[in-house]
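Q: I have two molecules that I believe assemble together. Could you output structure tokens for the complex as a whole instead of separate predictions?
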Amino acid sequence: MHIQALPLTPEAFAPFGDVLEATGDFRLINEGLCRRHHDRALIDVADARPGISIFLAEPRALPYDFSLIERHPEGSQAFLPMHQNPFLVIVSKGPEATPQAFLTNGAQGINLHRGVWHGVLTPLHAPGLFAVVDRIGTTPNLEEFSYPRPFTVRAPE
Amino acid sequence: MHIQALPLTPEAFAPFGDVLEATGDFRLINEGLCRRHHDRALIDVADARPGISIFLAEPRALPYDFSLIERHPEGSQAFLPMHQNPFLVIVSKGPEATPQAFLTNGAQGINLHRGVWHGVLTPLHAPGLFAVVDRIGTTPNLEEFSYPRPFTVRAPE
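A: Yes, here they are, computed for all two components at once.
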């Protein structure tokens, strides 16, 4: 089954998490030379602390086939690209639902809310380098589900 | 007075904070397709919570003149570039000390430890876009100091 990737917008992504970008309200700091778009992500980690890790993922290409989704029941997870290339974001309302795919615009990060089903990190260009803000804990925090048939994500038209 | 910017390394930066980059130990995740460099930053916020903000700063150029340094006594502050351009990092052991300047390699973020004196955010290329992980609180968290004479940061030789 094919899924068409859509441009990532805060409105479309709201059921899944936050879009982290330099739009909307800001405070001017540093004598007017810097805009601070303040506190854009709902960080939510249970029985643990949030931390910053660095992910380096293999680039993928569109069309992209997948069947696996996963979620972290104990914490939110933010992906902050350390580059200006669009990357693919796959999310789902659950194993019973058809997944949705979004393509970032090259100046957007995302924060997946706690427990949201999502695909693995899928950069489309090298280097697939991201800073990740998520739960640093010692107890289990991963559930996986494989759809019985793969989905194929197509590029936006 | 002139300061020579040096390449940013974890060893040289250790008195001031963490270098956030895809080097050293990692865990393979996502069926071997992603390296997770785990928990690289000391997040330390007092009487508050950490959050993610997006900063958009005007690009500067080298040589770069400055006299102002600042610090946040109540919290650490991580700067994660959302691009692959080097940026300038100015830090100081205090108002009595001569500041030091570092230049990132285009694949490094930094985390300033709580209370470390530093210059304002100084990208060298547009867009000066960064994700920032710092203290989200309502009580004061800024001290500023101006050196009596400006310093000029020169590019590495």
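A: One point stands out. The first helix of chain B runs from residue 10 to 13.
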